[in-house]
Automatic annotation (TrEMBL):
<keyword id="KW-0378">Hydrolase</keyword>
<protein>
    <submittedName>
        <fullName>P-loop containing nucleoside triphosphate hydrolase protein</fullName>
    </submittedName>
</protein>
<dbReference type="InterPro" id="IPR027417">
    <property type="entry name" value="P-loop_NTPase"/>
</dbReference>
<dbReference type="GO" id="GO:0016787">
    <property type="term" value="F:hydrolase activity"/>
</dbReference>
<feature type="domain" description="G">
    <location>
        <begin position="2"/>
        <end position="75"/>
    </location>
</feature>
<dbReference type="InterPro" id="IPR006073">
    <property type="entry name" value="GTP-bd"/>
</dbReference>
<dbReference type="Pfam" id="PF01926">
    <property type="entry name" value="MMR_HSR1"/>
</dbReference>
Length: 184
């Protein structure tokens, strides 16, 4: 599954990784309003389908509504015997601040994930090439070492990646997750 705030590049990431053609918006409103599936793609001989989710802070639904939607979908998949190997959480490295909405979205994401499933999380710092080297490295360091940000998830086993909007970068992230043992 691919999660994060509105405008972090979730649908673009899915399209880049899988060659899908999910709608992407450049407007100020959220584009993805429901769960969308990518076309299947082979990663190291494994068939992978990415689950594109609405932004946790989308324009027309509350964070709680989005979390309930995602949770219901994942529960339905589990009941059908479909395995989710992990979750990609996108965060814009280009964001100057980690404001209230970003923190609220991160907390909602953490609450959605079982503690034992945190080893199957890839935190993806997206839009990597939009920020100069020194700034992005400083932001990455702060995001990974502060308890209020990604540190608890990283300490629990999540892995930090950066993504520069090319297919090989996206597939490396997916490759990491498909090798993990699925967790509920």
């Amino acid at each position: 599954s691919v999660m994060g705030r509105t405008g972090t590049g979730k649908s673009s990431f899915v399209n880049t990784a899988t060659g899908s053609h999910l709608a992407v918006s450049s407007s100020l409103s959220s584009q993805t309003r429901t769960i969308q599936l990518s076309r299947p793609v082979k990663i190291d001989s494994k068939r992978v389908i990415l689950i594109d989710t609405p932004g946790l802070d989308m324009t027309t639904k509350s964070t709680e509504e989005v979390v309930r939607l995602v949770n219901a979908y994942l529960t339905k998949m589990r009941k059908r015997g479909t395995t989710v190997h992990g979750t990609i959480y996108l965060h814009r490295i280009s964001d100057n601040r980690m404001g209230h909405i970003a923190l609220e979205s991160l907390v909602a994401f953490q609450e959605l994930c079982a503690q034992e499933a945190l080893t199957n999380i890839a935190i993806v710092l997206n839009m990597w090439e939009d920020v100069c080297h020194n700034v992005r490295e400083t932001r990455k360091d702060v995001l990974c070492t502060r308890k209020a940000y990604f540190k608890p998830i990283v300490d629990a086993g999540a892995v930090i990646f950066h993504h520069d909007r090319i297919a090989s970068s996206a597939r490396d992230i997916i490759r990491h997750l498909v090798t993990r043992i699925p967790q509920p």
